[in-house]
Amino acid sequence: MTPVAPEVHEKCGATPDYFRQNHAYALVNRLRGGGAIGSKQSKEVTQSERGPQKKEDEWRKRMDRENPRTDQKSKRGRSVMANYKEQFEKALNMRIKEVTPWYNSVSQKLQSAFSKINLDKELTEEGKQKRRMQLQQSARKQLLKDAIEMKRQRNEILDQAIAEAKEVADKPVELPSDGDQARFKRNLTKFQTDLMLTNRFDQAMRKLNEFTDQHVSSQYHAEELAAVYPTIIQTSLGVAEEPGKAKSELSSKFDEINTALVPEDVREARSTIESAEREKEAPLFGLAVTNHVRGLLGQDIANNLNNPEGYLTVLEAQEADDDDGKYKGGNYKWMKSYSHKTK
């Protein structure tokens, strides 16, 4: 049987889950001048105000020289960002670039071991059959053990990436004055009340746009709005004649706010967190590998290769230990366990 060729996977960009009830995004006022979302003041940010990239780099270098503490802090931030991205890429590479070549090598050695048994002139046909069965039993269990170890290593790397990305994503919010907080909360409560009394979706969207334009002018204000956005969605959809279209408009509005105001490093960190969580659930072995395993080691191993923990226990309970130590799983030199170098 020909070994499986390495699979080609496309890397997909992560889309934030904007409407999770228990995780509202921080909305940061990045616009110069501190204007509210959508206001004329907030939109009048010209290229000359930002300055070309070269001047910004020169300014950063000068500030780093003049302020060592800032230098250390900024380097720490950039280091954390680079590291969580590196960890995430490492986990992706385990699935995309490492697992299939590793399986190809193991399957070739296993097939070679079967061939040696078949060519052993000192064995009877009955003896060859017994050896083949013992070899297959050992390989079935060992492959499941290696699949368990691969998942453990991948998830360990992903957990590290998630923890480091959270350092960037969960940066503390700078609070405005007590008076400003109190005013915003009153305005937010009034807006939510007005929204509940609205009986048309177009009116609900108009009120939402007016509120963001007039009152969301800092990270604190924007994050407070994000925290109640699931309720805003529920209320607005309740008066929508076309729920699908309405949901799309509400999603676009949130996307607009998020894209415009959340700092790029925070967006990237949150996107990586969501991607890493999905990667933890992604199967390590693709269809080409499982199809090959099906022919080599059986349908049951192929079916359980991506969720091996429970089935390994079943196999170990079903199969009696072989008295011939030569054919026990741990003694096969060709069946080298998978090992990923994390550093």
What's the layout of helices and strands?
Elements: H1 40-43, H2 47-50, H3 53-66, H4 68-119, H5 125-169, H6 178-196, H7 201-215, H8 219-227, H9 229-237, H10 243-261, H11 264-281, H12 287-297, H13 299-304, H14 308-318
Summarize, please.
This protein is mainly alpha-helical and 343 residues long.
Please explain how this structure is put together.
This protein has 343 residues and is mainly α. The two termini are 35 Å apart. The N terminus and C terminus are likely disordered.
User: How big a fraction of the residues is strand?
Assistant: under 5%
Q: Poorly predicted ranges (pLDDT <50, ≥5 residues)? A: 1-53, 62-75, 321-343
Mass-distribution shape: elongated
The tally of helices reads 14
* Cα separation of the termini: 35 Å
Helix content: 55-70%
Radius of gyration: 29 Å
Report mean pLDDT, rounded to a whole number: 76
Topology pattern, helix = H, strand = E: HHHHHHHHHHHHHH
Using DSSP, what is the number of strands? 0
The largest pleated sheet is described as: none
Structural class, by secondary structure, is mainly alpha
